[in-house]
Amino acid sequence: MNDNVTTGLTSELSDFVDDRPEDGVFRVNRQVYNDPDILEAEFQQIFENGWVFLCLEGLMRKTGDYVATAIGRQPVFVVRRADGTLGAQINACAHRGALLTPGRAGNFDGNIKCPYHGWRYDTGGQCIAISAEKIGWPEDDFDRSQFNLKSVPRLESYRGFVFGSLNPDVVPLPEHLGGITKFLDLYCAPAPAELEVVAGACIHTTNCNWKVVHDNGPDPYHAPTVHRNFAATLNHRDEKHGHGGLSQTETGRLRGKVATGSYAMGNGHTAFWADKQSPESFPVYALKDQYEQSMSPSMAKWAFDRSRHVTVFPNLLINELASTYVRTYRPLGIDKTEISSWCVAPVGEAPEARAARLRKFEDFFMPSGMSTPDDIAIFEITQEGNQAKSGHWSDMTRGASVATPGPDDRARELGIDPDFSSNNFQHEIMLQGIYRQWSRMMFGDGTTP
Amino acid sequence: MSNGDLNQEVAEFLYREALLLDERKWQDWLELYAEDAVFWVPSYTMEGEVVADPELSVNLMYVSSQSGLEDRIFRLSTEESFASSPLPRTCHMISNVLAHETEGGTVHATAAFNVACWSNQRGPENRVGRYEYHLRRDNDDYHIGRKKVLLVDEVIDGWFDFFSI
């Protein structure tokens, strides 16, 4: 018995993740989706110990702009400070702990004022005023700095994606992201324009464990079943109403008509790709002639003719299959998850391209769209089914025996070095990568993830 | 027409639309809409404001033609949408109807709604908010030129479709 001292879990790893490549077995005990002790350990070992995605820089343009979010259970806010840099503080007044953010996002309008007793902080987190200070602390040498806000120890961005960690000793962000940075580079390529967050957001909640949401992203295997009605509807639309050009939606991957592949990227991150059947339906296609010459043919293929989808463990999904979708999620409880989504697009994009991008975004990704409701409904029945004590293993072996250890040719072209590559995105090597990282963080030796 | 009469006439039209949705008479419902009808459910920004420009913002729904609404009906007809099979039962309750004629002859109306919904997957749910209509007079009847649905909820629990709001 190798009890995990840090988390207090008294089970062994093999009770939860049955990873036996030599026997062709990869299974996950469904207890991981419904045991509150597991969630408690995940908060400690994953969310409050490693890197988590916090928000997009584009949501904080001006001094004092903030986004309120959480690292695991702990409320934090990210703020654009007076010196132009981004900072992150624990979102709790140093006095009695009230949240300091009036909303989900906004502007602090000068300085940060606690709504409870009116204490004030600057955007760097320094306590600058205490209401009726002299009544409480008449002494001349009173040191107000003891009430500065606690900082989030680590805050780093890559390409406008902001990550934070409560662990001061966590590895540098680029090391954590590894080859994912190449996909984030592609996300912003080839246009020189920076990306902006389009007005409007979608925040929704679903009755399932956070990992049920996370597992769904790198699972294109479900699309031909769950989203067949979506593909059929778009087919109907195209035939009857003649949608074409930018307003056409790419469905090659849903119909199984294009080349695909996937990668277990290491550190629990995943990536998959699908060649586009209708590359001209993507706004980026308009830039092809202009930029193709300056790129290698293989990189041009990655940029213009291949759609990509990545997840960053444990809480970020970036989907560029039909639009440009960024999703983060956080556990509100063992069986309740909050999902926040944004559309990201190049600054200065032509209005017709922007509108087409947005309509495709809404069609698929909104909880009022024509695909995501079906995903959510599946999340929730999966959570229910996971309660079954009999037959408690979820199988994720699919394709393991034919996966390639290390990079394939396309990975080499992109300059990434995945743990495993697959020539079919319906293989489950990505899920295996997720649960290997989960195992390391939950049952590892407690060193920096 | 007095304002009271107009309110009553518009209210009856809105009740009729509600009943067609509750009775799942999709084709009859669709015919209440003009060919270039806009069906708009705005999202809220991170700051909690309703998005201003539907064309260039993320919306919960922004369908700008009758045929776009027909796509949604087609999707239900595939009976392959797990979220919509079996179809949830709905009961639309509409009140606070206020209407006025505009100079262009279009009638603008607002109304409060509370839609009770029961689905196999999620059990009982309620969506509450306000409708803003632009109605075009067409002989003795109306056609919907625009329907904006402002949900009270800023965070959506579960999912919804055109028939459950």
Description:
The complex is a heterodimer of chains A (449) and B (165). Chain A has 449 residues and is an alpha+beta fold. Chain A has helices spanning 13-16, 36-47, 133-136, 173-177, 180-188, 210-216, 223-226, 228-241, 252-255, 288-292, 297-305, 351-365, 372-385, 409-414, 429-443; strands spanning 17-20, 25-29, 52-56, 65-71, 74-80, 86-90, 105-107, 112-113, 120-121, 127-129, 154-158, 161-165, 195-197, 202-206, 260-266, 269-275, 306-312, 316-319, 325-333, 336-346, 393-395, 404-405, 420-422. In chain A, strands 13, 14, 15, 16, 17, 18, 19, 20, 22 and 23 form a ten-stranded antiparallel β-sheet that branches. Chain A starts with 12 loop residues before the first helix and ends in a 6-residue tail after the last helix. Residues 1-5 of chain A have low confidence and may be disordered. Chain B is an alpha+beta fold and 165 residues long. Chain B has a single domain (3-164), classed as Nuclear Transport Factor 2, Chain: A. Chain B is 22% helix and 42% strand. Chain B has helices at 3-22, 26-30, 66-77, and strands at 33-42, 59-63, 89-101, 107-119, 123-138, 141-151, 156-157. In chain B, strands 2-1-6-5-4-3 form a six-stranded mixed β-sheet. The longest helix of chain B has 20 residues, at 3-22. The model of chain B has no long low-confidence stretch (mean pLDDT 96). At the A-B interface, β14, α8, β20, α12 and α13 of A face β2, α3 and β7 of B. β14 of chain A pairs parallel with β7 (156-157) of chain B, so a sheet runs across the interface.
